[in-house]
Amino acid sequence: MSLNVIGPTGTEEREQALIAKCTEHVPALLAYVCRLLGGDRHKAEDIVQETLLRCWCKYRSGEDMLRPWLFTVARNLVIDGHRKKLVRPQEVDGAAWLDLEACELDHIERMLSAVVVSEALKALSPLHQGVLHQTYYLGKTVEETAETLGIPVGTVKSRIFYALRALRLALQERGATPVRSDTETPQILRHRSRSAA
Known about the structure:
Rna Polymerase Sigma Factor, Chain: A, 70% helix, mainly alpha, 0% strand, 8 helices, single chain, Arc Repressor Mutant, subunit A
């Protein structure tokens, strides 16, 4: 950070000496303030600039006391900034409302999807509804479903396949687009089936 004096530079010896002394302390002051602010260099530069402005306007002591004076003023400015932040309402960056909006939209989307799927499930036969209820909603494996319903494992797999196909068609009739094509293995068979070993 370089020291740029704005306004009248003055030709008096005191002003020239003050500028020279301040310039000498700026790197150490900037490093100190940057540490106080947890590495935020932009805020640190603002604090150093305000410190130098106050020095220019108010500093009257001898040159040997300039460095402690600068560091004390900078430290007080950091503390004041922290206190102001605690008093005023919490600052929110510009993108925070987008996250909240996305959460609300996602929740609404899930609710609408649940309603559409529920209506589409009503269009299935009771056998297909039963097998999907056991596997998807109750989380049972194909083997557990076969045992609960008293039918062979192959029959459960077949009913799941045809139930998912019928559900996909029912969803398409209601304007919902399917996520998978008919040629893919139903997710229930890939994730819930366990070997009998």
